[in-house]
Write a structure and sequence with these properties.
heterodimer; A: alpha+beta; twelve-stranded antiparallel beta sheet; four-stranded antiparallel beta sheet; about 20% helix; B: mainly beta; five-stranded antiparallel beta sheet; two-stranded antiparallel sheet; globular
Chain lengths: ~240, ~80
């Protein structure tokens, strides 16, 4: 009798550990990147589960490189962080270039933000954060979404606000851009209007070339007061401005 | 500006995306082209196409160089 009970206990233990094991399945044989998408559902005994991840989806390209990973958080982690799930995007070198965070209903009610998108430089620093607002917040503020640009000091250098249709119709304003100094003080505001899409007189941008060893820097000045479609370019090492039309 | 076109209309209140082409005016006539893709206040893409060989150079905004008076590249 005792032997039978022992055997039964062992069988039950085996069955239970089998039930708790990870399940891996291919959920898409040919995804948007030309490769497969695998889904792993973790058991409560797995370390990743303890870290708060219940299910992960790995999206590969045709060469087997991972380009996207989705993590769905456990209830505990959702309560702790206010994030329901995230999506990480990677470049061809495996570096994360973008992360999307989808917030829980509770967190959305607290912050008025549904989704945030974080953009990363190759050194891992965040350079831009886009926040997409809830309908409730949009009704309250008239702002549909904001984009925060982060400077090398980790502080926001510029914020863009894009307004809802209702606010655009009411105030005739499409978007605003705020510039901040190092102390967090707004030093400049630009407003953009839907009909004219006019730029300020002498609106300029500072630009640097990318993908080259030594970046070329220039200042692009869009408009002159009397000639709206004429501008000029000043290169950092140039002798004089170059007119553009 | 020699050409401008709407390239994307955005749902939900965001401004449309426009592509503008600017041509350099040089002593020898026209030079390279600048392609500026903007959406409201945001510049989504900025490219320079060199005239002599058609080579393209991509740019991004250099926020740290921005001052109210103009771009300052030498400050730290």
């Amino acid at each position: 009798m005792r032997k039978t009970i022992y055997a039964l206990v062992i069988v039950l233990m085996c069955m239970s550990s089998f039930a708790l094991a990870d399940t891996i399945k291919v959920i898409n044989q040919r995804n948007e990147y030309g490769g497969t998408t695998n889904e792993i559902t973790l058991s409560p005994t797995e370390r990743s589960y303890e870290d708060g991840v219940e299910t992960s989806r790995f999206h590969y390209d045709s060469n087997g490189k991972i380009l996207k990973k989705e993590d769905f958080y456990t209830d505990h982690k959702q309560r702790e962080t206010g994030t329901a799930n995230i999506i990480n995007y990677y470049d061809n070198n495996g570096k994360m270039v973008k992360k999307e965070e989808f917030y829980t209903d509770q967190k959305q009610r607290e912050t008025g933000i549904e989704i945030s998108r974080f953009y990363y430089e190759s050194n891992g620093k965040i350079v831009k954060i886009e926040d997409y607002h809830t309908d409730q917040k949009q009704r309250e503020t008239g702002v549909a979404n904001t984009t925060n640009y982060i400077g090398s000091n980790g502080k926001k250098a510029k914020v863009e606000e894009f307004y809802t249709d209702q606010k655009q119709q009411k105030d005739r304003i499409e978007a605003s851009r705020f510039y901040y100094d190092g102390t967090g003080k707004i030093v400049k505001r630009e407003d953009f209007y839907p009909e004219k899409r006019q730029r300020d007189v002498n609106d300029f941008r500072c630009l640097k070339s990318i993908g080259v060893k030594t970046p070329v820097r220039l200042q692009f000045v869009f408009t002159a007061e009397d000639k709206p479609d004429v501008g000029y370019v000043i290169y950092q090492k140039g002798n004089r401005p170059i007119a553009v039309k | 500006m020699i050409k401008e076109r709407e390239v994307r209309r955005v749902k939900g209140g965001g401004p449309s995306e426009y592509e503008a082409q600017w041509e350099e005016i040089t002593s020898g006539g026209t030079g390279g082209k600048y392609i500026v893709v903007s959406q409201g206040a945001r510049i989504n893409e900025f490219r320079y196409i060199r005239k002599k060989d058609g080579k393209q150079f991509k740019f991004e905004e250099d926020l740290e160089a921005w001052t109210e008076k103009g771009c300052e590249w030498n400050r730290k």
